[in-house]
Amino acid sequence: MSGAGNRDRRDRTISLELGVGDPDGGSRDRGQTAQDFVIGIGVFILAVAFVFSFLPSILTPYDSAVGGSETAQAERIANQIVHDTESVNGSNELDRAVFEAEYTGENLTDTLALRSSEDVIFDSVNVSIETLEGEPVNATALSGGEPYDGQPAASSARIVTVDDTSADPGDCEPACRLEVTVW
Q1: Which residues span the membrane (predicted)?
Q2: Could you tell me the residue ranges of all domains in the chain?
């Protein structure tokens, strides 16, 4: 045993730890600091913001065929129709006879001042008055212009009533929808 007790002993290194906020003055048992937490939350918020800003561009088509000019044109036409066919009672009540005389033809280019040449129509339009459920008024559609086949288009709608003594009063009770579609 003589060899076991005569070992060379090294001096011990003295270390001192001061725990911040620890009442004992010792160290905390956590491995995460406040800076780690802030950086982690910041990266998470940036990732969520990136997903929300990038996801809509994936879901929408790359090129929309409908621009602001078509939307403005649909709004202008809807306003013109309401103004031109408004009955004496006013307040978006349309005179059915005036509407049928002016806006139920197949070619509304001249009536609505749309672009066209001798043989070519540049702006296509469909004008219709429907019930709020989307059904034609009084079993015959109060519509005009070219038939709309579901192509990309701009549309504008107005809630109106129709002044018509011959029509069934239930058709536009309480109101109807004037819809203008431009493509």
Answers
A1: 37-59
A2: 68-182
